[in-house]
Amino acid sequence: MTMTRFMASVAGLALFAGAAQAESVLHILHTNDFHSRIESINAYDSTCDTETEEAGECFGGTARLATKIAELRTEFGEADQPVLLLDGGDQFQGSLFYTTYKGEAAAEFMNRLGYEAMAVGNHEFDDGPEGLAALIDRADFSILSANIDPSQSNLLKDKLTRSAVIDLGGEKIGVVGGTTMDTPEISSPGDALIFQSDIDALTAEVEALTEQGVTKIIAVTHIGYQREQEIAAQVPGLDAVVGGHSHSLLSNTDDAAEGPYPTMVDGASGTKVPVVQAGSYGKYLGHLKLTFDDAGNVVSAEGEPILIDNSVEPDPEILSRIGELAAPIEELKNRIVAETAVPIGADRADCRFRECVMGNLVADAMLDRVRDQGMDIAIQNGGGLRASIDEGPISMGEVISVLPFQNTLSTFLLKGSDVVVALENGASQMEEGAGRFAQVAGLKYTVDPAAEPGSRISDVQVMQDGAWAEIDAQAEYGVVSNNYMRNGGDGYDVFETNGMKAYDFGPDLADVLAEYIIRQGPDFVPGLDGRITVFGDEAQSSEADSGDAQDVATPQ
Description:
Elements: H1 3-14, E1 22-31, H2 50-54, H3 62-78, E2 83-87, H4 96-101, H5 103-113, E3 117-119, H6 128-138, E4 142-144, E5 148-149, E6 163-168, E7 171-179, H7 183-186, E8 194-195, H8 198-211, E9 216-222, H9 225-234, E10 240-242, E11 263-266, E12 272-276, E13 284-293, E14 298-303, E15 306-307, H10 316-334, E16 336-340, H11 348-351, H12 357-370, E17 377-381, E18 392-395, H13 396-402, E19 409-415, H14 416-427, E20 438-441, E21 443-447, E22 457-464, E23 467-470, E24 476-482, H15 483-486, H16 493-498, E25 500-503, H17 509-520, E26 532-534
Parallel strand pairs: 1-2, 2-3, 3-4, 7-9, 9-10, 10-12, 17-24, 21-26
Antiparallel strand pairs: 1-13, 5-8, 6-7, 11-12, 13-14, 13-15, 16-18, 17-20, 19-24, 19-25, 21-22, 22-23
């Protein structure tokens, strides 16, 4: 974090100077976008293996979070300062724990950790409103959204609530929830739920709580950092916004942070309103300390996300329970999900240099999953393809070995000129066998590895209305990739900087691939079709290559 950003945050807090004498303190601990990372994660946000865990290089995990939360509750309790534990939504989707248990595991562990309230995230609808209803039934905490009208839903009309008033040792704290308004386009909430204006709905609910005599009101939302700042600015009566959806790490010390923690916004009531998020996947635990005066006005706000690294010992009881639940997941890996009539090759010498069979298959599966969302092109890094699949039955474990990183689909709009920039990046280190080489669908291109990096790509064409057409530099195309690349991984900075209307963290790419193969039937014969031409390449990519050595290293 730059000194300028830090000083800006301090300056924001200084505006509280001269306010009434503070009378009470509230600590808010918070997570968001956990995405079923119940087990600890590695540096690439996927499940940590035993070797990495023993090396002390893992983060997060429910057992570590439990230890840190209990430690802070004890510390603040001894000071007679109440603690509120909140979640900014998207507990669902992202690991085999979700694939196996849906919301059951999320509810169990959130109950164990003692959450008081959670915002409804868009991924809570990935299995329809039934999935959210089941979570609410199991939860010992409030699950909230003020801007979802459930009155027409038989499943949720008597379950989903707009807000809750939580009693913390005599302190009554109002918590109001909010959900991103584009949920119907990016998830599966069904037709019975009505998504209303977030700002209008939150404003009305804060007014209702205020009329009940509640003076301390927190919004817990799954709407995104930028929009959550607008909410803080436009909704009168809010004391803080605890957010999610954009996976934003806010910090006063980390140079990669999107903004200061807390981000102070000029509120509609003439006060400064803090906005916070804590990254994603449980790698950080957010900690916001609010100080109130007698009238319930915030007079100071401070804090910083806490890195949940190897220095935090996992809670042994919860770690044991996670181990019990993990056992059937091993059975899932052995489950036969499909069949292929030919081997599906993913040899790194192919997938990092030329069109390869697995690259075509994965890119086709990605594009097929989101084509109805207006996507035209799929781009997958060859280095993300880590194993081949033999002819015959295909187990889920084999699919996971191909795509082991728990990468998820990301969609965005990109100008044609930036698509070419992305392809140039993919071809920029071909001679080194770098993993950034672009495997594609809905796209054809030619690459000359003898040319200088940055000028290797030519004859780029996009499939439009059933025919190939030259890419238009100024036109906008819908692109699907994986979240690693969308965030600038493998040198794809253009995705992060120029991608428009980005939506990250959809279904796990391994699940997408498995479902696509199943739909093709047992006689499916994946192959090559000439979508990538490499000048001077005399080698023939073997469609029969079974890829005996399965490379499972981390992506480059």
